[in-house]
Amino acid sequence: MKTRIGILGLGGVGGYFGGLLAKAYKDSETVEIVFIARGKTLEIISESGLKLITDEAETIVFPAIVSNDPEQIGKLDYLICATKTYDIESSLETLRKSITKNTVFLPLYNGVDAPERIRTLYPDNEVLLGCVYIVAMIESPAVIKKVGPIEKLFFGSDSAPLSKLKALQSIFEKAAIESSLLESIEAKVWEKFIFISSLASATSYLNQNIGEIIASNSSRALFVNLLQEITMLAAVKGLDIPGDITMKTINQLEKMPHSATSSMHRDVIAGRNFELASLTEFVVNEGIKYEVDMPNYTKVLETLLPKMPSDEAL
């Protein structure tokens, strides 16, 4: 019987890693990759495949199945979730017929609140923790562009059967996905969140890309202040975050393509719904809960809130 893996959300993360899986297991007798898509993306992948563009090459891949119909999708052993955080509940509700009690969820969202939200919907299922480091984006429907060499995936769980975790790790390895199965996964997820939350908040608030933030003393100072606030929050929550996390994050920022920006910033510019709730408001609310001052995060939230599309305002 084949191991069936669904990819929900074919943006930069889901599209790229899902594409690597589809390429590796195209004719596999043991693993089947299912893309869950709709609209133009569904139409294009069905006819022409999903295109992956990197600095070195372009590749077109086809999954075993691409559909948004649970009857066609079928029952899933694993579901890799990589939609925008504001779509978690609505997207997962539509897949109830494809979820069994043995389906394992691997959330690869930008925020840290997703696992608890998924457990609320599916309390009997294993929900792993996971995060990725990658600069990738949708260039056009069914076309994913990855910039730079970074493409790391981390995942783990303190409750899932080790056999399930190792089976997934083996599947990733055979697809040439640089992945790590970690015991201390919550700290790693928060380490990533510290970076992505502060970057998303700074780029969106300042309307600047990475290079512009690095080049400006005032912009760089805001980014550092956001880093310090969210790092203090993580410490108060008792997470084992590296003591040099601020310097590590700044160094990581400087190594990224200077023309790049956060996905939240791109959404703000385009006038689309954006992940303010999970990437900025969540931090402000956790600060209130744990009595950690968040003046810079609060300023960012208050500035960006009016920019939310009117029907999506928090």
TrEMBL record:
EC assignment: 1.1.1.169
Cross-referenced SUPFAM superfamilies: 6-phosphogluconate dehydrogenase C-terminal domain-like, NAD(P)-binding Rossmann-fold domains
Keywords: NADP, Oxidoreductase, Pantothenate biosynthesis
Record-level Gene Ontology MF annotations: 2-dehydropantoate 2-reductase activity
One Pfam match: ApbA_C
Residue ranges occupied by any Ketopantoate reductase C-terminal domain in the UniProt entry: 185-303
Signal peptide: none
Ranges where the Ketopantoate reductase N-terminal domain occurs: 5-156
Oxidoreductase among keywords: yes
Catalytic class of the enzyme: oxidoreductase
Reaction(s) catalysed (UniProt annotation): (R)-pantoate + NADP(+) = 2-dehydropantoate + NADPH + H(+)
Pathway this chain belongs to: Cofactor biosynthesis; (R)-pantothenate biosynthesis; (R)-pantoate from 3-methyl-2-oxobutanoate: step 2/2
Function as written in the Swiss-Prot or TrEMBL entry: Catalyzes the NADPH-dependent reduction of ketopantoate into pantoic acid.
Family of this protein: Belongs to the ketopantoate reductase family.
Protein name: 2-dehydropantoate 2-reductase
Organism in which the protein naturally occurs: Flavobacterium frigidarium
